[in-house]
Write a structure and sequence with these properties.
about 210 residues, 4-stranded antiparallel sheet, binds 2-oxoglutaric acid, binds manganese (II) ion
Length: about 210
């Protein structure tokens, strides 16, 4: 089959969330369904997924999902008490990176990969605010597989309602500006019988 020249859908729709202290733009269907299927399958089989421990409140426990870290040589990442050294880029990750960089204001040198095996896998409330991401990090989040709600809550303002952004197969959420300083986010567990989901958060590590 001839390669597609672009994964973009013609009627691409980009809702921007109108909330204080954040810059969030969701590009639903950024990767067309058949391209997204192909990328999901390649990532599922080719990435060396592992369940890693984290240190939370001084206690070591296993993360409730599988992860991997991919990036330019020497770009390692430390969070929640663990340091991850990068695996090399794969063709499908470079393909995705190339396409999101056509919209992103910055280029990325790394990506954190998360594999949620089912509804019991999750990620707790946090913000992507490590020093090595710089002052106002631009984070590009690409999802494949089961749709999960990406929940955000303001850190300081109780009058600002929470947001639930459904991250569907082939979607691309761009977070920038002060988002990471003012908002926490998570992927909650669910009892619903859900299939697997892969999320990629492209980052630019400064040092
Ligand atoms: O799975 C997601 O959509 C969120 C991932 C995330 O917040 C992270 O990798 O820091
Ligand atoms: Mn995050």
């Amino acid at each position: 089959m001839a390669p597609r020249t672009s994964p973009l859908l013609p009627g691409l729709n980009t809702p921007t969330y109108d909330v204080p202290d954040a810059a969030l733009a969701l590009h639903d269907g950024f990767f067309a369904p058949d391209k997204a299927d192909e990328l999901f399958a390649a990532l599922q089989t080719r990435i060396p997924w592992k369940q890693e421990p984290i240190v939370l409140f001084g206690k070591e426990m296993m993360q409730p999902r599988l992860t991997a870290w991919v990036g330019d040589e020497g770009v390692s990442y430390t969070y929640s008490g663990i340091t991850m050294d990068p695996h090399p880029w794969t063709p499908e990750l470079l393909f995705i990176k190339h396409h999101i960089e056509t919209i992103s204001p910055v280029k990325f040198n790394s990506v954190l990969l998360n594999f949620y095996r089912d509804g019991q896998d999750s990620m707790g409330w946090h913000q992507d605010q490590e020093q090595e991401l710089g002052q106002n990090p631009v984070i590009a989040s690409v999802s494949f597989g089961a749709t999960r709600p990406f929940q955000l809550k303001h850190k300081y303002r109780e009058d600002v309602p929470r947001i639930d952004i459904p991250l569907s197969h082939g979607s691309f959420l761009l977070m920038q500006g002060p988002t990471q300083h003012h908002w926490r986010h998570r992927i909650p567990k669910t009892q619903k019988p859900l299939g697997p989901r892969i999320n990629l958060t492209f980052r630019n590590i400064l040092f």
